[in-house]
Each structure stands twice: as C-alpha cells, then as structure tokens.
User: Fold this.
Amino acid sequence: MCYSVYLSTNSDQNFSRENSDLIRFRKMAADEPFGSMLQHEHKLYVGSKSGCSCTFRHLTSVELGFSEPVDWYEEAKDEILATRSLIMIIRKLIDRGDQVDCIDVWYGAAEEDIVKKTVNLHTLENKQFRFFENHLFRFVNQA
Assistant:
C-alpha cells in the first residue's frame, strides 16, 4: 500500500537535475495508471526518499485544507522538506509561464475516485502545501 504522485508539464526541462535524497523524478511509462488524466505532454512519476511517493505530506481529505505543519498533527521533517522542495519546483515552472498538473493517488484508486482541484499558488505559501489523497491538482498563479 502506498501513494503515487504523477506530474505533467509542458516544460521539456531535464528533471533529473532536480533529483535529491528527498525527491526523485523519472519519466512516466506509457502504461502507468492515471497518465490519461494528466494534461501535458511531459509526464513524470515523482518519488520521495522511500522510492514511492509516501514520504511527502498527504491528507486523506481536503477538510483541513492547506496548512503549514502544526504540533498536534505529527509529520516527519523529511516529509515536510520533500513536499516543500516539490512545490518550489512547481512554483518555478508556473512563474516562468509553464503549465503543471499533478495527481496524488492511493494504491487501488480508480480514475472515477479522483477529484479535481485548482491550486492558486498566488495565495499559497510553500510551507502550506500538502497533497490530498486521490486529487488532481491544476496549478495556477493568479492575483
């Protein structure tokens, strides 16, 4: 059982340059699930230090929304740092005019389980970003 994060963009940048101990990009295989839900031509699987995408910040629902880490909801420091690294990469792409979407899925989810959500980076700080299980995020930066 685990999470998978898939990202697509119209940017043809070499994402392997962004790989670190906390985050790993690899080209998404043509037969990987959820690829058809992603809008853009360059599709990537985004793994975390665990190899899968489990060591990013995740919530099972959107009820708590985006929020910086709080004492009463324990999160590992590596999860916080990995998620912040990823949203910084996404923000950089959006700020230079590229398009980005990504999907966070729990093992066994089906396409009909996925909820679409627009994320306005203009109103969201990097430290507040976290994934919501079975959600497809479309990123914008609108004042």
About this structure: The first strand starts at residue 3 and ends at 9. The longest helix spans residues 77-95.
